[in-house]
Amino acid sequence: VQLQASGGGLVQAGGSLRLSCSASTSGFTINAMGWFRQAPGKEREFVAAISRGGWNTYYADSVKGRFTISRDNAKNTVYLQMNSLKSEDTAVYYCAARPGGTSSTGVEYDYWGQGTLVTVSS
Q1: Of 30, 6, 8, 29, whose CA–CA distance to 103 is shortest?
Q2: What is the rounded CA–CA span in Å between residue 82 and residue 69?
Q3: E-strand spans in 1-122?
Q4: Hey, is 107 helix, strand or coil?
Q5: Sign of torsion over alpha carbons 103, 106, 110, 114
Q6: In sequence order, which residues have a C-beta less than 8 Å from that of residue 37 and are 6 or more positions away?
Q7: Out of 32, 54, 81, 95, which could bridge 68 as a Cys pair, Cβ 3.0 to 4.6 Å?
């Protein structure tokens, strides 16, 4: 499984960005997909996760009400719509996938993308 994240960039505080992550499964099964982020000097943290059918979504408290995760299974792509961005959202954002159900724990994800940098200027 290969994951390719895109959509990062520089945005002013209060602005919006949409991240995309396309998956090449090569016959492997992926179920849950998620987004994590790592800010400079900090540990990687959970952002959002979504079940295969898209019915179940989970968010970190810090992004609830501002970020929305969604997926298009026909395109094997997961999205992260980020609104009302804050300087503290600055980080490298990674998409991840796993055969099992949704999880907010990074070590439970088997597959990871290369990351895309989001910089929010204040």
Answers
A1: 30
A2: 9
A3: 2-6, 9-12, 17-24, 32-38, 45-50, 57-59, 67-72, 77-82, 91-98, 111-112, 116-121
A4: helix
A5: positive
A6: 44, 45, 47, 89, 91, 92, 93, 94, 118
A7: 81
CA 10, 13, 18, 19 torsion-angle sign: positive
> Could you read off the pLDDT tens digit of each residue along the chain, which spans 122 residues?
999 999 999 999 999 999 999 999 887 888 999 999 999 999 999 999 999 999 999 999 999 999 999 999 999 999 999 999 999 999 999 999 999 999 999 999 999 999 999 999 99
Contact criterion met (CB below 8 Å) for 45 and 23: no
Tokens of 97: 């996938």
User: What do you get for the CA distance between the two ends of the chain, in Å?
Assistant: 37
Q: Are 106 and 46 in contact (CB under 8 A)?
A: yes
